[in-house]
Write a structure and sequence with these properties.
2 copies of one chain form a homodimer.
Chain A (H helix, E strand, L loop, with lengths): L1 E6 L8 H13 L3 E7 L1 H8 L9 E5 L10 H7 L4 H11 L3 E6 L3 H12 L9 E3 L1 E3 L5 E5 L9 H18 L6 E5 L10 H12 L4 E6 L11 E3 L2 H28 L1 H9 L1 H11 L7 E4 L4 E4 L6 H16 L2 H8 L10
Helix pairs in contact in A: 1-11, 3-5, 4-5, 6-7, 6-12, 8-9
């Protein structure tokens, strides 16, 4: 049985979406056991009209909710009765719980995971690895997308190793092509961090490092793993999302502005719906925090039930493929290195 | 008379596009004088079928061409007879020449401009400021998009001041809203560089600093100037371009894949053409290098005649609005500061 905690509060569609996604995941995986944290009565109400295997779902009452703008340190100190911190506590104290899914405040979740759950052996700092669809039907993982903004070349090497294992084990990408995000493809490009990381990545065993990449190639399908610091990774992800979203919005507006466009759009209705689904992050789950001793998945704040279900699936597959053991093995040689 | 050098070689469509764009700019601005650098015979051939005011166009023969992958230091040292370096030399030696437009190697152009043309008084390091269209019909300037990758908070403050003046004077944007690119909008977000820059920007007089921005808001029209280091600025620009381009490509492919989509697209032909033009960087000129003592504009490597014409127009307007004097005046107080 794989046990996963679902923090049922803190998102725009919580707790309804969280509960519905949980129930759907339960019916998908027969050896999955879920622990829902949050206000017991509210969760029970959400469950009341649903059919599910009651022996594989439990509720842990947590009356408080973490707000988006709360200071992470305050959350950890003062919000002990919140659905997020109670979940983190379960992760810390119960050996048989594999991981946790939350759509609450990113800052609070990262801090709580780092401080209360801890890192796997050899990991200097955990890093986020969201998955994006590429335009040729594949996927690409970006690591790190915002967990650490001050990094050394070794952080980037570890991001490469962890993300490579993740794509290989959870998404069945064989021998993932790992690229270093840079401002040009030539070896000597970029700042000192990138130049040093490039040399180290070239010599890193067990990964398929293919060189520098420019951000305009993120969606082309040329690469499977993009390695970057948390700042530029965040810019990369959010500007890509932003550009796609704004373009779709503009198209929609322009279609609505003239009758002939509306007629044309009717013919293309199915196609537009497919484009929308393709672009919708709801279908790609959440962002896994690679390197913590238990699996931690951060879903989008506006996650619907389908996104929650995918997040749970990610956590489930992480555990099933023994990602933690594999990361520790791959990072064995870094166990004695102390940075920061 | 405003004199501008046009480097006629080094782009994918050079020299034809460069020459055609030059001729078009000449007919647009009656007090414009252009100096075309490059192989004289080839340029003359390109000019042979064109009508233009011969008294306002001269050719300076330069038999060599700078390749895209050549090392900037080698270019400056060894390619003295190239169209780019000869142009830079003219900029350096002829007082009455206001600026230069080039679509050649960015690295070589930046290095040559820094070393041979120099900086305006008070400027620590020049920075690129490309202009992008926003989805509500406006524009946004991103400064820096790749000239400096190792920066201090003061660089960011100077980028803000220079880009603000640029948008105000060349694009008539009143009191431009300046935002700091960050990984969240809250004041305390980001790395040390961003935190320090935020405080300094808040206290900088003469700019309209509106706080941090997330990259997903680049195209929404919420901001007029985005301030960033050259690394993340480069990621921002290129991932936005990449996402838009890849999306258009996907749409095109999906339309072609089914007859019903093709029929629909016929109705929407005009709209799609407008979207394409809207997205086409050819219509937005080049990226100005703010802070050099003479105007330097870097056009896209694949610039067509229209893009060259726009680049010349940018240089012309920079000179007309006395940008150099305005930047020096705004940065007066930094004259004695020495960094790096």
């Amino acid at each position: 049985m794989i046990k996963i905690v679902v923090d049922c509060f803190g998102g725009d569609r919580s707790p309804q979406a969280n509960v519905e996604g949980s129930v759907n995941a339960l019916s998908k995986f027969q050896d999955l056991h879920l622990i829902l944290t949050g206000d017991e009565k509210t969760i029970e109400e959400c469950l009341s009209d649903k059919k599910y295997d009651k022996s594989r779902l439990e509720i842990v009452h947590a009356p408080e909710v973490v707000g988006v703008d709360e200071k992470p340190t305050d959350v950890i100190r003062l919000k002990k009765e919140s659905s997020m911190i109670k979940g983190i506590k379960l992760l810390r104290t119960e050996d048989d719980i594999a991981g946790m899914v939350s759509v609450g405040s990113t800052g609070a979740l990262v801090s709580a995971a780092m401080l209360r759950v801890g890192r796997l052996k050899g990991v200097i700092r955990p890093a986020f690895c969201p998955i994006l669809p590429t335009m040729n039907g594949g996927i690409v993982g970006v690591c790190d997308s915002g967990a650490n903004v001050d990094v050394s070349p070794l952080h980037l090497v570890q991001n490469a190793i962890m993300a490579s294992l993740y794509l290989e084990n959870v998404y069945d990408v064989k021998n993932p092509r790992v690229a270093l995000l840079n401002i040009g493809t030539e070896e000597e490009k970029g700042d000192d961090l990138r130049k040093k990381a490039f040399q180290m990545l070239k010599e890193t065993e067990g990964i398929n490092f293919v060189g520098n990449m420019e951000s305009r190639d993120l969606l082309t399908g040329k690469y499977d793993v993009v390695v970057c610091d948390g700042f530029s990774g965040n810019v990369l992800i959010k500007s890509t999302e932003g550009a796609c979203l704004e373009m779709l919005k503009k198209l929609k507006k322009d279609i609505a502005s003239r009758l002939i466009n509306k007629i044309g759009a009717l013919f293309m209705y199915k196609m537009f719906m497919q484009e929308k689904a393709f672009m919708d992050y709801q279908n790609y789950g959440g962002s896994v925090l690679l390197g913590t001793s238990k699996v931690v998945i951060k879903g989008h704040g506006s996650s619907k039930a389908i996104a929650i279900e995918k997040c749970i699936e990610q956590a489930y597959k992480m555990e099933l493929s023994e990602m933690s053991e594999k990361i520790e093995k791959a990072l064995e040689k870094y166990e004695d290195i102390i940075i920061e």
